[in-house]
Specification:
It is built from 9 helices and 6 strands. The chain is globular and about 45 Å long. It has a 4-stranded parallel β-sheet. The protein has a two-stranded antiparallel ribbon with strand order 1-4. It has 222 residues and is α/β, with parallel strands linked by helices. The model has no long low-confidence stretch (mean pLDDT 96). One of its GO terms (molecular function) is uracil DNA N-glycosylase activity.
Length: 222
């Protein structure tokens, strides 16, 4: 598996890449990509790390699984490629941003513009088989991404963690809440959002208020 990953992450994760579980995971992923259609493209599996070096990181936004529809996943959580219709969760994210900080709803669902400002758009599982949600869970990705969250907590200061939904909230135990800001709410998926657990969380203005308070440049969420 060819890894496109920024040097700052490569050195921090080098030990992890050598562990037996990661070698087994790599073998599994290679086999899946050879035998089935999988997403994202191989070169984009580590896009979150490639586009947001750890020395620039300000926000971690945790998703669960890549999108499993054709052409959607681009290696960044909640993000889709240019020209792809916005999935329901992303629609609700953009609606909340519109409400929270009064910016217009964007045309593009590609969140690279956030990643390049220091938002680590991390999925707990980095790959998926086409049209089969959750098909690459419990193969080692979660061990890897839990380690990533812990490394960010240990090695960085004043990071905002956005944890949406029950799955993401459980990751709070990996984070030193004395030195970071953890914001939790319901998931932006319609199921949760329509029950009143998402809209009005004001996470985007809160994240920027915290970043300002620790002397960091805010994120332009447009």
């Amino acid at each position: 598996m060819e890894v496109h990953i920024s040097p700052s992450w490569k050195s921090l994760l080098s030990e992890e890449f050598e562990k037996p579980y990661f070698k087994s995971l790599t073998d599994f992923v290679k086999k899946e990509y050879k035998e089935h259609t999988c997403y994202p493209k191989g070169k984009d599996i580590f896009a979150a790390f490639d586009q947001c070096p750890i020395d620039k990181l300000k926000v971690v936004l945790l998703g669960q699984d890549p999108y499993h529809g054709e052409g959607q996943a681009n290696g960044l959580s909640f993000s889709v490629n240019e020209g792809i219709a916005h999935p329901p969760s992303l629609v609700n994210i953009f609606k909340e941003i519109q409400e929270d900080i009064n910016v217009p709803y964007p045309e593009s669902g590609n969140l690279s513009r956030w990643a390049q400002q220091g938002v680590l758009l991390l999925n707990a599982t980095l790959t998926v088989r086409a049209n089969q949600a959750g098909s690459h869970q419990h193969q080692g990705w979660e061990t890897f991404t839990d380690t990533v969250i812990k490394l960010v907590s240990d090695n960085c200061q004043g990071v905002v963690f956005l944890l949406w939904g029950g799955f993401a909230k459980k990751k709070t135990s990996l984070i030193d809440t004395k030195k970071h800001c953890v914001l939790t709410s319901g998931h932006p998926s319609p199921l949760s959002a329509n029950r009143g657990y998402w809209f009005g969380n004001k996470h985007f203005s809160q994240a920027n208020a915290y970043l300002s308070s620790v002397g960091k440049e805010i994120i332009d969420w447009k």
